[in-house]
């Protein structure tokens, strides 16, 4: 009797579930979106797919007089979709083949006021976005305080506190993302978390947080071995690992006393200039760019060093990471620098970046008259001290 009663209750529960989500049976290569929204009578919804490279329109459909909608779509593999009311009012879904998804919400604030059932990945992604929105609200409050205090006598102290509070908010979201990925390494929602921005700040990057990229690549490759989003992530991770391996080899080759690898790049006139053409001098290999403010300031400091030591046998071989010839030439003229300037105008894609393991600019390497590396990443004061010492020794020998 108890078994029959349990079976009856389970049957009723199954019927209720079917009534809630619809009684459509769906094949494994389809998915269903259903839902109901307040303030959404005869409202047009658009569905877009987020691929590895683009956002592609899929279809559009309209709610009925009660704000209800229903859509059935073809889906061969799990992927990301945007359900959009307008430009800024949308939600992101992680959809698996065969899922029957039911969404409720308020059309006036759909991006934050909604609930999702029938899609575990979409529920996780919704939690991620809600936390992001909470932190954005905190920033809005900071903006109000900033505006109200602009004309107060203690404005600079207030601004300093607000800047620190903003950094704390960004860090809070970053920690949330890290925990999200650690707790959900087998969910496709974590790829969205991996590339989440806070304003203009990418919260995780391959240089400082590579372990999260590796964790997701390994975990998701087991769960979704043929999924294009996972394959794309795995390719990125493999590429980064190869680059890091090459950088490590380069760093080993850039130890003090090692010969500096040859560089041959065009100067502003298009003539190819080799680093070795300056052999016989102490040479500072200086990586810079016109868009790098610390580099421009460094040029002014280098002018004094160059003027003092160039007659004794000191040269600078400056490599610009600019993108355009016009910017590069304007920067040279504006800064009034007269030492050797070269660039292939390939930005961070220049082969010399990997050759010399350049990760940030300004960056420099000092080599001796025989082309051997003396030091790396030195300040202008350190450079001046080194040159003072070596030229005093030379002059006294």
How would you characterize this protein structure?
There is one protein chain. Strand 7 and strand 8 form a beta hairpin. Helix 5 (210-223) runs antiparallel to helix 6 (228-253). The chain is built from ten helices and 17 strands. The chain folds into three domains: 30-118, Transthyretin/hydroxyisourate hydrolase domain (Immunoglobulin-like, Sandwich); 129-251, no CATH class; 258-391, Glutaredoxin (3-Layer(aba) Sandwich). The protein has a five-stranded mixed β-sheet. It is α+β, with helices and mostly antiparallel strands and 397 residues long.
Detail the topology: elements first, then pairings.
Layout: H1 2-21, E1 30-38, E2 44-50, E3 55-62, E4 68-74, E5 79-84, E6 90-95, E7 100-106, E8 114-117, H2 120-149, H3 155-183, H4 189-194, E9 197-198, E10 201-202, H5 210-223, H6 228-253, E11 264-266, E12 272-274, E13 282-288, H7 293-313, E14 314-320, H8 325-335, E15 340-342, H9 351-355, E16 363-367, E17 373-376, H10 380-396
Parallel strand pairs: 1-7, 13-14, 14-15
Antiparallel strand pairs: 1-4, 2-3, 2-5, 5-6, 7-8, 9-10, 11-12, 13-16, 16-17
